[in-house]
Amino acid sequence: MWFRRDLRVCDHPALLAASKASNSVVPLYVIDPTLWERAGSPRRAYLTASLRALDDQLGGALSIRVGDPRVIVPEVAREVAAPSVHISADYAPYGMARDSRVATALGDIPLTAIGSPYAVAPGRLHTGSGGRFKVFTPFFRAWLAHGWRKPAEPIAADQQWAKLTTDNLPDTSHVELPPVGELAALNRWDEFRPRLATYAVDRDRPAIEGTSRLSPALRWGEIHPRTVLADLSDSAADSKFRAEIAWREFHAEVLAANPRGVREPLRPEYDAIETDAPGPSFDAWRQGRTGFPIVDAGMRELLATGLMHNRVRMIVASFLIKDLHIDWRLGARHFMDHLIDGDIASNQLNWQWVAGCGTDAAPYFRVFNPTSQGRKFDPRAEYIIRWVPELAGANDPHEPLDVPGYPAAILDHAAERRVALKRWEQIR
């Protein structure tokens, strides 16, 4: 069993199939240098912690190998005379290409893909004309109508794991992490479920625990979305959370159909929009020193925790693209460098949504006012003060004036909004 984005034991169709195929299974994880080097230190730290948690669940049997999967996977398979290698399908552009190369390298040993990180795998749904979906609402209707399987049955309690020699996990820099691993994810979900009743409103309030905080666990497959969906009712509150799961699956669908979306706008005309070169203002954004409190709070939360509240992600992205006029790809790269839940499909296509250049995007003329967004969603400035403590004594933490240690606003939002809209008009 070659683990990748499925670091769990429960509700795991590929692992279940491997366990039914043999009373002795080799659990393998390959640290691929290509992916390791692309990941920022917070994501590396989360991955290594999650691998340790999985190893504990497997009784210390997880084999870690460092190297090219095209070499490592066939080596291990032949070392133990494995009749097959089981995987959960990967639909990210790099993952699909990697798996094709590994299948070729395995020769007559089949690479058997069962299940995926999604309730409904990319490519399963099609429009009435047979095409791929580009807009969320019709995708969501088709996704609901299609439905998904029940969670997979558990593996046998007496399943035997073959222990092989293992490489050491690479050292990672210290990052403050939430509880990691499948058991922590299941506990987090159980703790959050009573709060689903107020989720539709609370999800936009960064100062409170209004979201599930399951995004890292879903990204690494410590919990499967099918496990979550099985617990949801048909209530309006639960339906809102179901829709958020569907957005994650929609982004995977769009990127699988348009792999160029990793680096290119899905609406190519937006490549012509004028952008500014990154400079001191970009550094101020990355450091949380723009003088716009809600923006700075979000960027500091990211640096400290590897996470950022979803509403705040939209605010800081809009600020970078439409106030600072900086290419969305630089913001997407910064997020991937720091997020522990960094998922290539959700990250790149959410940035394209804000930039107006995705297949299903916010209109470019929607420019978030960071001050009014802060007042609306953090009215008491509790989130702001948590991450920008120097504003605790300010008369108005949303628009502070002459606060020692806190920078003045680096720009005039109203003026920069006019610049953004003028540049947009030039490409229309």
Output the keywords.
Rossmann fold, 7 strands, DNA Cyclobutane Dipyrimidine Photolyase, subunit A, domain 3, 3 domains, Serine Threonine Protein Phosphatase 5, Tetratricopeptide repeat, two-stranded parallel ribbon, mainly alpha, 428 residues, 3-stranded parallel beta sheet
Distance between the termini: 51 Å
Q: Are there runs of 5+ residues with pLDDT below 50, and where?
A: none
**Name given to the CATH architecture of the largest domain:** Orthogonal Bundle
The gross shape turns out to be globular
Q: CATH top level of the largest domain?
A: Mainly Alpha
- Main sheet overview: 3 strands, parallel
Report the order of strands and helices.
EHEEHHEHEHEHEHHHHHHHHHHHHH
Instruction: Give the C-alpha Rg.
Output: 23 Å
How confident overall, as mean pLDDT?
96
SS-based structural class? mainly alpha
Question: Strands of the largest sheet, in order across it?
Answer: 1-3-4
Care to count the β-strands?
7
As for the number of domains, it is 3
Q: Give the name of the CATH superfamily of the largest domain.
A: DNA Cyclobutane Dipyrimidine Photolyase, subunit A, domain 3
Q: Assign a percent range to the helix content.
A: 40-55%
Portion in strands: under 5%
